[in-house]
What does this fold into?
Amino acid sequence: MTEIRQDAAAEPHVGDRIAARARALARPLGVGLVLALAAIPAGLAPWQAVAGYGAFAGALLLWPSSREDARARARARARSRAANAVHPDFAVIEALDLPTIVFDRETQVVRQNSAAKLLVGEYPDRASLSARIRSPAILELVARVVARGLPESVEHSERVPSERWHEVRVAPVNPGAEPDRRLYVLTYRDLTEARRMDRMRTDFVANASHELRTPLASLMGFIETLQGPARNDEAARTRFFAIMLEQAQRMARLIDDLLSLSRLEMRAHVAPEGEVDLSRTLTHVIDTLKPMASELGVTIDLALPQEPVVVTGDVDELIQVFSNLIENACKYGQTGKRVLVTVANSDGDGAHVTVQDFGPGIAKEHVPRLTERFYRVDVESSRTKKGTGLGLAIVKHILARHRARLVVKSVPGEGSAFTVKFSSAKPSSSPLSKEIYQ
Ligand code: ADP
It folds into this structure.
């Protein structure tokens, strides 16, 4: 950056005008002086020569010259334009999406870009930084940088209107300039997204560890009991081994789901390329889930359109999606005794698959959070139903890869409908691989 401050625009000073005129008229003034001096030996009194030359020079210098005045006025106008124009450096900060404020040694704001106006509000002309920035940490940072002349930054967080984190950096712009011409730049770098990701990661690790720890603690407890008091108790051993197997299976399910999630995250940006016939896929999924459904006393009905509905996708992943949704509908909507799966293909609106149950439904406040990892409406009910709390998170990831959406509608007391909306269905072009449907 270069020196930014401009002199105020002004009409040329009278003294400056005369000096400029003297430079322009140097030759006639010189000739006049020689003539005046030459006239003295020729009989002119010195005072007459001086007075005569003075009158001549004064008239010459002060006589209005329209050309020069026009030039002077043009120069003044140019200076005025330069003073009012946005300095190229200010144009640069305006183009940045980083909230940026330029201020002087007295912490008066010289310029702020639109991003800074949005973040802290617009400063009135020549207002002090503290008119909008109230954080003591930022104001102390500003004072330190002005005193020491070295760049520094602090982290700043706000809770209102929403939780946000920023790195605020203050740096001198022109440290070599005269003290009263020094400028400083304050920038905000948004750390909110990075912080949110950090928190999600930590929460996820804490949740996953907790979920694994519970069955592990139970396994360890039973092992100790079997080694000690129940060593010779045949009936207790049989009972405990059954519980231990259940706990080990729970851990295995959890690990499988965690691995599924991490694999999906790795492939998040690779769009699937296969073709999936939704009617055939759903028929296959329902066939495999029928034993589980009948154990729960639930019947699964499938409503298919006449025409095959084919979407672009990964068949194994879509089987996972529909299995999860139908299994949930059977488990959590068990009291409704019926699950209805509908495939629809509306022109222009793409293919839809709806899994509807007639169970207790889900209260409104839970619906937006269902696809969060480990989120359950009722933790105990999920555990007894062999849930991991990761099923719908996996569904969400798979659908994101398929550019499809999950829409959940639920009426407490009447049941829930989970609809998968594919962006477009395509006509079937090749026979689908049979083996996966067997
Ligand atoms: P889980 O492994 O616990 O089933 P999911 O991610 O599949 O985890 O589902 C998250 C939670 O959403 C479940 O624990 C349950 O509380 C709720 N839920 C999912 N599907 C339904 C449904 N059809 N009816 C009522 N609640 C449901």
Remarks:
- Residues 88 and 135 are 30 Å apart (CA to CA).
